[in-house]
Sequence to fold (167 residues):
Amino acid sequence: MRMQHIMSHWCARPNARARIAGSPALPALRGIADFYALEEGLVLIASFWGLPYDAAPCANNICALHIHTGGACTGTQADPFADALGHYNPGNCPHPAHAGDLPPLFVNRGGYAWMGVYTERLTVEDIIGRTVIVHAQRDDFTSQPAGDAGARIGCGVIERLGLRGSV
Fold:
């Protein structure tokens, strides 16, 4: 029954959205992350274009995806998204048990990735005004404090959607 409840939200209007833009090093990177509120937790559906992609056999082509605490996609020349701050981690848990730790993005030809995940670690109310960050490398799910995922290459602020579903 729980899976039917989760699946029914895919056709509904999302409750929140982040429009992801690339860093100056990857200006073509774009993405949309839609968040759907459930009684317990949320569903995240996200699509990305312009991610780094290597066509070589056995290339890694995996990027980390996290919810960060900060509410802005600004920063410095060295770290354009520094104001996104660190991973959202209200329970002060070790990585990868942060509430904001998400599954990785598997990048395909053309730099395209899609993912969907259900999590009870977050609610939509928890993340409004926070940021979605795409990292240049995979999360190793071991290194502290944040998985050694590399540079922040994409960022978007999570905004509540209005009644018509647009930000």
Observations:
- The chain has two helices and nine strands.
- The beta strands are 16-22, 30-37, 42-49, 62-63, 65-68, 105-106, 113-119, 131-135, 152-160.
- Helices lie at 2-8, 124-127.
- The first helix runs from residue 2 to 8.
